[in-house]
Amino acid sequence: MKIFRQLTANNVSVKEYKFLKELAMEAYLIENEDILILDDNNFSSVEVLDVELALKKSRRDRDGRIDILAKYGGEYLGIIELKKEEVNENSLSQLKDYLDQRNQILEIGGEDYWEEESEAKWIGVLIGESIDPLLQEKLMNGLDHNGIPIAGMTLRRFRSDQNEIFVISDTFFRFNYSTKDYSKFIFNGKEFNKGRLVNAVIKKYVESNPSVSYSQLKQAFPDNIQGSKFGVFDLKSNAEDIYSRWSHKRHYIKPDEVIELSDETISTCTQWNPVNIDKFIKRSKELGLEIELK
């Protein structure tokens, strides 16, 4: 029996336009990596680090290949397994094999993949056109492998008569946050995750000190708080150069995210984890900026 699917959006009729190969799905996600965002907390900032990454003996008695390696903020590395059709228990088993060999990834990539002072945490992500109903239920209830959380996502593509492309994604993920995860903060009456908190606090500090210069702000929030070469913030021009050269977004660079100082325009860093965000909060409180952990 054939199933005919049709979607109508704003009076535009569209038909299903399947990804014929996993490589096509992979290419789409590379160009649209924000689709890989899993929630509004620790997994809201994502970038693709590498694709088709070979691992030795990662499929029991043979070698394997990771479809996508992604980084979520400054805390997690994600192994992403793609299937152009249904994701099922076999797909999950394959992902688990790769997660068991995760240490190979850091041996291969070193600081190109992880340059934070804290140890990398991991997450596995399954993506396909659909998900087996029983597996979908497990994902929605919270699924992990030896303590490593696993998320699922469906990705479906449609095309209109005018050749406009529409992609619909659904994420199935439940992560049980605890206090030690430092996932949500209250500042100035609003709720933020780690990276957005830093951006909001620096904006508020600058608003309260409108004459502050770049060098003065560096003294107030020195680079060693963040713990890597990116610092708490950098010149907007440097941040844009990093993104254009390496396609790695390490700073907030959109117009509503950048911050104007008396002498420069800056971008705050997106790479935060429980270790360096704790340092940032302590320094902020020393400067009279009160932050609460939700």
Number of domains: 2
| CATH top level assignment of the largest domain | Alpha Beta
Q: CATH fold name of the largest domain, please?
A: Trna Endonuclease, Chain: A, domain 1
- Percent of residues in helical segments? 25-40%
Order of helices and strands: EEHEEEEHHEEHEEEEEHHEHEEHE
Radius of gyration: 21 Å
Shape: globular
Main sheet record: 9 strands, mixed
- What gap, in angstroms, lies between the N and C termini? 51 Å
What's the CATH architecture of the largest domain?
Answer: 3-Layer(aba) Sandwich
Strand content: 25-35%
Structural class: alpha+beta
Count up the helices: 8
For the residues shown, what is the average pLDDT? 89
> Could you list the spans in which at least 5 consecutive residues all have pLDDT below 50?
none
Tally of extended strands?
17
